Amino acid sequence: MIPDESSLYLTLDVYLPRYICALLLGIDLALSGFLMQILTKNRLADTKLMGVSSGGLVAVAILSSLNITLGHALYYPIVFIGCAISSVLLFYMSLKSNGRPIFLLLGGIGISSLLYSLAISIFILNHEDLLSVYAWTTGSLNHVNWFHVLLLFIVTCIGSFLVYLISPSLKIYELGRNTALSLGLAHGRYSFYLIFLITALVSVSVCVAGSIGFVGLLVPNVARFVFQQNYKNVVISCIFIGGVLLVICQFITSFLSVYHEIPVGCMTAILGAFYLLGRNLKWAR
Amino acid sequence: MGSVKIPYFYYMTLAFMLFTVVILFLMSLVLGDVKWGSLVELMDPEYIDVVMEYRFPRVLVGLCAAINFTLSGLLLQVVTKNNLTTPNIVGINTGASFFAVVSLLLFSDNVMGVSGVFSTNMFSFMGSLFACLLFILFARKDFTNHLNILNGIALDSIFIALTAILLLMFPNETGSIALWLTGSLWGKNLQDLTFLLPSCLVGVLFCLFFGQRMNILSLSNETSISLGIHVRRNHFLLLLMSCFLAGTAVASTGPIGFISLFVPNVTRLIVGENIKKIVPFSILLAGIIIIASDILSRVLIPPEEIPIGVIVAIICSPYLIFLVKQR
Amino acid sequence: MHKIIFLILCLAMSSLFSQISYGENAVTQLESQINHLHLSSPPKRILSLCGPGTEILATLNFPPVGYAVLNSGKIPAYLDPFLKNITKVGNVANPSLERIKILKPDVILIDRVYENQSDYIANLKKIAPVLDVRSSDFQDTLGHLHIFAKMLGKEKEEKVYLKNLQAATQRVESLKSQDKILGIFVSSKAIWGWTDKSYLASVLDIANVSYIKTGNGSQYYSDMLQLSVDKILKINPDAIFIFDEAGKNSLPFLQESSAWKYIKAVKNGKIYKFDRDIWSRSKGPLAAIVMLDNLSAANFGTSPIKGEK
User: Fold this and answer.
1) How close, in Å, is residue A33 to chain C by CA atoms?
2) End-to-end distance of chain A based on CA atoms, in angstroms?
3) To which H or E segment does residue A101 belong?
């Protein structure tokens, strides 16, 4: 057996799950960001910014206040319900804000902050240590083990396969309800598929790592910039870019985590912020 | 949703709200952890001491902060021509929080002879100004351009991430601020009002006098210019005023963001789009909400206190439904 | 000229000495704080806003006018009879200032847990003089106990306590345990451990139970440090004490990490669960006796209290 103090063991049994989770989670978040951008017809949709993962956070807060200490991976069904509620809210809002993407963005931020505050309030009312809660809600991969990897692997594989399958139809979906119907696409059913897939992917990410943001914003935009027409290629490149991106972020944060564990969500937030700023500067020129 | 209401009705509503605010204010002075039995005992000097030292200042601080947040949100909504803008979008609240955490790290032992509270306040205010400057720096010519909102969100995220990194790298030195980051009125005294009260008065007077101008600015830019108002200069002024108000408020109580979103929008639902009418109504509504929250935070689980940010979040969460149903 | 330089050097040296860290001169610091108060007679109304303060007063059978609960929202059960009719003023972090004021204490005891919340102390100082009874070491706690016993004229109670402590120590010593211990607690999702220069380590030390060398704590708290399961693996203690609040269980959270099962303590089945309020938060004289009794009840050294892996 592997000797317990060797660094080889540590690499294999402790750090490897984290990086595999980072890879899978990157794929997961990139795809869910892609789907959200199609669903809300808004290039700036992101799962954390718009509040989908905040619904999951509230669910976890309620669960931990009830002192239910199933392994965290078993939270999945309840977190699924929480994320489903917030994604339905978001979808409903997107229907109402036709053609004005900024309204949806701000409304999504409103939903996200409100739900996030509710989650934090529940934690406060239960005398939980705020700093640890804060670290977790920013998105942290430091407590994953092989069971998480298994769960993430199953959901991500099935999810990405399904997304790849429906990606050509999504091109038609994006043309709008009437056009899609006239072209033979069951628009309402596809909306439901999208919501279901987004919820499934996001809730597994909340279960494993808290809510990591901005990956869903960055990666699909970059992928679409490269492959404008063919959505199948966009999906594949999302998968690659997303996975690699989060692995790099995890690598950087593990360097910074010499004394205290830094959550990987901080790194993605900084990257995402620079992307947003850089994007606007480019347009202005 | 025009304001076809009779002005008489409007003033009656205002008067009723003012009355409510006063009643709530008195209730907050009377209700609380330490209770007295009869009216005679209310005149007890001991009791008056407790009230004047602990309850009166914190209610006042809460009131001024709430008014500041509301007006700051309203000004930003006029500048960006968008009803869902909050000071968060410009990064003011989070910039102030970031600087407050930095000040705790640098001045953890009351160095430089400045009291700890004072330096945290100063730094928070500087932080909000810094965020505002960054926003203006990155902003394109026209503030109403929605790209600026994206920039603001980006700045917001950077500050949040940096704050999180600092909090997690130095948990022992900064742990006490985790509660402040949710908004708390615990231990506020008259000293906290030194900056807050003047800025609140300035803000209120500004909004009352500039109401008509803000109405014009809410129209399209061309219309405003043709009516003789220099759009860019006024946007600049409103933006700075908004940052000033939000900065002083965050410096004293910590960020209580929802009031900026909730109060102006609910006011618009009731009163219409005329800013001259919105301003007094939203001031009073903010007062009602914050004083009620203060009473609840102190009365629910004595002797412990629920942080006021939590109560405001819970009160404002039904607004989620409205948010979704809007437009 | 030389005299001025000499004076400046003296001032510099004395200011250096005033920055002494907590563990070393806590007892003399408390003494000097009390001297600074210039109390004409021993204080009659003491308010305790910290665990150690409440316990010291309970040991000496001197009821305070008010007390604060620990962060769990409760106080340890053995203090219940003592504090039955005494006013609760809230928790340690933000107590109800109104109640404190109305109780009119002569002296307030704190241990500055949130040390940088300086407006907390300023608010308290307006009501009554504040004494800091923080001790990161059990020897300091005993020193503080002695100071209070002398001040309040309760030397007899102190002697009774010391005898009980002696008996409890001997019971644990007779178990002759050889294991090196690590004490940890989980705060939501972060693992914290007590260093070898902490209250826990020194209590175990007087009973001849060794504590594992953990390295230094953080800058302000030399007795705690943040850990992760792989760091615990690097330290590799023989036995682990997990401190949990009643009704909570951190073991599943620790077991989630794949490094957990490789730790020596886990492989030998020497994982013990104890109450966090008593073992981790109280830091008072009575807690020490309860801790030692818990250890002898667990038959420590021979079989674990819960054979959990």
Assistant:
1) 27
2) 61
3) helix A101-125
Average the pLDDT over A82-105 and give the result. Answer: 80
**Residue B104 CA to its chain's centroid (Å):** 22
Please give the single-letter amino acid code of residue C248: K
Q: Would residue B56 count as lying in a domain? A: yes
What is the domain range of residue B34? 19-326
How many domains does the structure of chain B reveal?
1
In a domain, B176, yes or no: yes
Pair of tokens at residue B39? 């009216």
- DSSP-derived 3-state class of residue A192: helix
Tokens coding A171 = 């091109």
Q: With an 8 Å Cβ cutoff, is C89 touching chain B? A: yes
Q: Is residue B148 part of a domain?
A: yes
Residue A4 has its nearest CB partner, among C71, C233, C253, at: C233
Type of residue found at B83: N
- What H or E segment, with its residue span, contains residue C88? strand C87-91
- 3 state DSSP class of C38: coil
Please tell me the distance from the alpha carbon of residue B149 to that of residue B157, in angstroms, as a whole number: 12
Give residue for tokens 């509620």.
A85
Query: E strand or H helix at A204, and its extent?
Result: helix A187-209
Portion 171-190 of B in contact with A at CB < 8 A: 171, 175, 178-179, 182
All residues of chain A having their beta carbon less than 8 Å from the beta carbon of residue C226 are 259-261
How would you class C9 by CB atoms within 10 Å of its CB: exposed for 0-12, middle for 13-18, buried for 19 or more? Answer: exposed
- Using the structure block, give the residue that is written with the tokens 């910074």: A256
Q: Give Cα A10 distance to the centre of its chain.
A: 28
Per residue in B10-21, pLDDT (tens digit) is 888 889 999 999
Which residues does C177 contact at the CB level (< 8 Å), separation at least 6? C209, C300, C301
- Quick: pLDDT tens for B176-217: 666 677 788 887 878 778 888 999 999 999 999 988 888 888
Asked if B320 and A259 come within 8 Å (Cβ–Cβ), the reply is no
Tell me how far CA of residue C99 lies from CA of A174, B300, C90, C127, C145, in angstroms: 62, 15, 9, 11, 26
Put simply, whether C74 touches B (Cβ < 8 Å) is no
Which pair of tokens denotes residue B242? Answer: 């908004």
Please give the C-alpha separations between residue B75 and each of A211, B232, B242, B260, in angstroms, as whole numbers: 32, 14, 6, 10
| Residue B68 to residue B55: CA distance in whole angstroms | 20
> Three-state SS string across chain B, please?
CCCCCCHHHHHHHHHHHHHHHHHHHHHHHHCCCCCCCCHHHHCCHHHHHHHHHHHHHHHHHHHHHHHHHHHHHHHHHHHHCCCCCCHHHHCHHHHHHHHHHHHHHHCCCCHHHCCHHHHHHHHHHHHHHHHHHHHHHHCCCCCCCHHHHHHHHHHHHHHHHHHHHHHHHCHHHHCCHHHHCCCCCCCCCHHHHHHHHHHHHHHHHHHHHCHHHHHHHCCCHHHHHHCCCCHHHHHHHHHHHHHHHHHHHHHHHCCCCHHHHHHHHHHHHHHCCCHHHHHHHHHHHHHHHHHHHHHHHHHCCCCCCCCHHHHHHHHHCCHHHHHHHCC
pLDDT digits (tens, 9 = 90+) for A209-238: 888 888 998 899 989 888 877 888 889 999
Neighbours of B184 (CB within 10 A): 21
Q: Which chains touch B (3 or more CB pairs under 8 A)?
A: A, C
CA A170, distance to chain mean position in Å, is 19
Which backbone phi and psi does C275 adopt, to 5 degrees?
-75, 130
CATH number reported for the structural domain that contains residue B206 in this entry: 1.10.3470.10
Name the CA radius of gyration of chain C, rounded. Answer: 21
B190 belongs to a structural domain? yes
Could you give the angle at the alpha carbon of B169 between the alpha carbons of B167 and B171, nearest 5°? Answer: 55
**Reduced to 3 states, what is the DSSP secondary structure of residue C76?**
coil
Global pTM value? 0.82
Apex A147 CA angle, A144 and A149, nearest 5: 65
pLDDT digits (tens, 9 = 90+) for C35-57: 777 777 888 899 988 888 888 89
Element housing C239 (H / E): strand C239-244
